[in-house]
Amino acid sequence: MPHLAPVENIPAQGLERKPRAGARKPTIVELERYATVLRIDCVRMLAVAKSGHLDSSLSAADIVAALYYRVLRHDPQRPNWPGRDRFVLSKGHAAPIQYAALARHGYFPHEDLMGLRKLDAHLQGHPDMTRTTGVEVSTGSLGQGLSMSLGIALGLRLDKIEEAHVFALLSDGDCQEGQTWEAAMAAAHFGVSNLTAMVDYNHLQTDGTTEEVMDIRDVRKKFDAFEWEAVEIDGHDMAQVVESLEWSRTREQPVAIVCQTKKGRGVSIMENQFGFHGKPPSPEQAEQALTELESKLAEQTRQMGLSR
Question: pLDDT value at position 4?
Fold first, then answer.
């Protein structure tokens, strides 16, 4: 199957970005193309690993691309730089999308992506801060990520590292857990202003829709009630994603960005479809997914060339 060639064989020109002083920020069109590349990486990883959470990774691709390629202050050459922004993937089962972004930025070699979930490899099924460079905290048990992010934000304040911001990506499953709302209450109480929570609200989980399993209703209003600044956006509209993320770091209180998304975004057989949670694509499904995504990447590349 030619589409399942190693990840490192994807043409790298224009796909990697290492921060440098005065670097030009990627445009919305460029970010949309980066998101497609990350989705391709995820499909290839899961097809080889034959396990993992693909649809949950695809729904978050636009958010993660905006963060790593434009919003986050980070440096792969100095992964422990004290002034860096911190990204916490509370929905740790979507680890492939973070791994793809880290590899594309040079935190570790591209070929490592093909070791996803393999014994003795450093890319485990959920992020492990002790094994993977660029992972801030180990996550996976839903509901804990926002508390850990709050702790990091408070620690940065104690250390007087004022330029660093903490971005936490939650799932709708996180919002079904009580600990999330304890953290939301505490963040407002302590007046934390260096914390942004993004909710990947894709409305689907293992046993059905969130409305059927445990309806969390209007999440924006919930955060608003906890005295956060809260907005709701289309999580696949890159302009909205970038604008809200960049706006969030200017506020004087914690910010929640509720991103309405679709599981399996970008792959027609998976998009907004129940039954793919935690299930890898079959060889035929992976082939179809990569055909669609690579076609989109080619069109995005062509459009970028025409616009220059």
Answer: 46
* Sequence ranges of the domains in the chain: 2-303
- Give the CATH number of domain 2-303: 3.40.50.970
Is residue 76 very low, low, confident or very high in pLDDT (cuts 50, 70, 90)?
very high
- What is the spatial distance between Cα 64 and Cα 38, in angstroms, rounded to a whole number? 9
What string of DSSP letters covers the chain? -GGGS-GGGS--TTT-----TTPPPPPHHHHHHHHHHHHHHHHHHHHHHS-S-HHHHHHTHHHHHHIIIII----TT-TT-TTS-EEEESSGGGHHHHHHHHHHTTSS-GGGGGGTT-TT-S--SS--TTTSTT--S---STT-HHHHHHHHHHHHHHTT-TT--EEEEEETTGGGSHHHHHHHHHHHHTT--SEEEEEEE--EETTEEHHHH-----HHHHHHHTT-EEEEEETT-HHHHHHHHHHHTT-SS-EEEEEE--TTTT-TTTTT-TT-TT-PPPHHHHHHHHHHHHHHHHHHHHHHHHH-
Pick the closest to residue 277 from 53, 113, 118 (CA basis).
53
Q: What is the per-residue pLDDT across 202-237, written as a single tens digit (0 to 9) for each?
A: 999 988 899 999 999 999 999 999 999 999 999 999
Please report which confidence band the pLDDT of residue 15 belongs to, taking 50, 70 and 90 as the band edges: very low
Give pLDDT, residue 275.
83
